[in-house]
Design brief:
- By secondary structure, this protein is α+β, with helices and mostly antiparallel strands.
- The chain has six helices and six strands, in the order H-H-H-H-E-E-H-E-E-E-E-H.
- The protein has a six-stranded mixed β-sheet.
- A hairpin with a 2-residue loop joins strand 3 and strand 4.
- The protein is globular.
Length: 171
């Protein structure tokens, strides 16, 4: 008696090819990297936040580009809390300017390395205005969902900033 397995395997492959299943199976095993066109709108969203929100001091941009509830450094917060936080920075450093040094995107994630400069003209973290020109760096990783920023992880050189303001021991 002849073994039916090779014939069944051929029939299975034909069915898989006809239904588009082979392409689906290949994609499932080796996901393609997102195209540049998929990440560009996400990068533009993040760039808009920096340019309009910080550099032009337009806090209303937060309502347009952030999810209603978002997570920042693992804490759930709303857009109003984010605007209050941004206001605190802008009040302390009225000429604050953020320069995006590097921005990368992959899928729904955008990362940026930035440099911030400003003159300390308002109270900041209990430190009275010093009039000092300061500069610090940071990195943000943001996740975009449905065309809005939904999550952020922010890390910056806060210690370096406090040193420049003379607010650390030994300064």
């Amino acid at each position: 008696m002849r073994n039916p397995a090779p014939r069944l395997l051929q029939l299975g492959l034909v069915l898989l090819l006809c239904s588009g299943g082979l392409q689906s199976a290949v994609r499932a095993q080796s996901p393609a990297a997102p195209s540049q066109s998929e990440t560009e709108p996400n990068k533009a969203l993040v760039r808009r936040w920096i340019e309009e929100g910080f550099n032009q001091h337009n806090l209303q941009v937060v309502d347009a580009i952030f999810a209603e509830t978002l997570t920042i450094n693992g804490h759930l917060m709303g857009r109003e809390n984010l605007k209050q936080n941004m206001s605190r920075w802008l009040a302390a450093f009225p000429d604050l300017h953020v320069t995006i040094d590097t921005m990368i995107g992959e899928g729904n994630s955008v990362g940026l390395w930035y440099t911030v400069k400003g003159i300390h003209k308002g109270a900041f973290e209990g430190i009275p205005p010093t009039g000092r020109q300061v500069s610090w760096v940071g990195v943000d990783l943001l996740r975009i969902e449905s065309g809005r920023i939904a999550q952020g992880t922010f890390v910056d050189d806060s210690l370096g900033l406090l040193r420049q303001l003379g607010a650390t021991p030994g300064d």
